[in-house]
Amino acid sequence: MNRIVQVEEKLPFLKTLPLSLQHLFAMVGATILVPILVGLSPTVALFTSGVGTIIYILVTKNKIPAYLGSSFAFINPIITVSASLGGKEYALAGCIASGVVYLIVAFLVYLFGTSWIDKILPPVVVGPVVMIIGLSLARAAAVKSAGLFKEVIKDGQILEVAVNVLKSPVCWVSIFTLLVAVFGSVYFKGFFKVIPVLIGLVSGYLFAYVLDLIGMNTNLLNSFYPNGKYIPFLNYEVIRNAKWLGLPQFTFPKFSLSAILSIAPIAIVTITEHIGHLLVTNNVVGRDFTKNPGLHRSLAGDGLATIAAGFLGGPPNTTYGENIGVMAITKVYSTWVILWAAILAILLSFVQKLGALIQVIPSPVIGGISILLFGVIASSGLRMMIESKVDLSQTRNLVIASVVLIIGVGGTRLKFFNIEFEGMALATFVGIILNLLLPESKELKVAKAKEALDPNN
């Protein structure tokens, strides 16, 4: 495309199809990775991302070009709640509640505007919480699944022992996958620059096949994973037994107040992410979507999409920066193109053999990608504070950031009336309370006043 295609334009289908496929490829790697990590169905995640995107387009009156995919912010809360309550069905109820939080905030934005959000959730609170999302997953979801540790039982206790990388083909796959994704993120150009995750996943898969690790000796695998936790590189039976076409394996929620209170507050963080993505989209497209159709509609669309995903067994939805990147490259902003990408995702979710192929992606491949992704998430929280000029030489800011980080990363738990709060949810609450209670210094107030008056800001 050599010209700008505006939001309301409809292109012929033969031109729309490849443009829609680009959006599908841009989001699919990250969207399927979330359900793989939390134990949900990747095909259901594809289905709910498509349905959620259609809901979003309808709610925003077909005026905002945005694709909704799986949110990484909910990975650790879903894993924790599923383990503590004995099933991911309970975590889905919390995901539904997070969508309700979106609707509540959307209604408040409609009534009172957005200034109150800045007061409750300044960068000094949101930045550390975003960092927690990546840091809290580092060991469990990235390093261990990458095969850099093995578990050994000694004297009745499970110990983690570092693996000799040179002697571990499992590590080779993980490191190769990571290197491809890192190289792609830095050096790829054009459209390929927005899909390094997908390229890394495919490359890692192929590397395992080239090394003939698919037929690796079972005894060798067991020497690295003596507790039987290792997932085979490719279980042909799973793929062979899967039908070509069929309904995704939906999972339905079970409601628990504890799960709701543990997961729903995460929406406070993802709402700020949503607003950030919308502002970036404003800059890319050259329109102010916060006014027309309005931020409240955008938040409501995301909330309803997340509620629908929770009821069907998919992870919460969020707007995707990858797809904003595709629009920036192609200069095609048509919601018609986004709509067809959503339809293609839904159609793809009915291909059960594809779902089976995704479900048996080698864990070291997932681990290699996770090291990059979760590191980027943690770094984005730091970048948020830097871009917002958060002054950590101010004792108030330093205290808030420090307390939020340690509570979140350390998995601190507090119990009130038999209801347990922990990790990121607790850290978010504590950050909000500290921000409201701790007074700003005179120097900080003067600095903010000068910044507000500066015409260059």
TrEMBL record:
Record-annotated membrane-spanning stretches: 25-58, 64-83, 90-113, 125-149, 170-188, 194-214, 332-351, 357-377, 398-415, 421-438
Subcellular location: Membrane
InterPro entries: NCS2, Xan_ur_permease
A molecular function GO annotation: xanthine transmembrane transporter activity
GO cellular component entries: plasma membrane
Membrane association type: Multi-pass membrane protein
Keyword Magnesium attached: no
PROSITE patterns given in the database record: XANTH_URACIL_PERMASE
Protein keywords: Membrane, Transmembrane, Transmembrane helix, Transport
Residue ranges of coiled coil: none
Family: Belongs to the nucleobase:cation symporter-2 (NCS2) (TC 2.A.40) family.
PANTHER family: PURINE PERMEASE C1399.01C-RELATED (PTHR42810)
Protein name stated in the entry: Uracil-xanthine permease
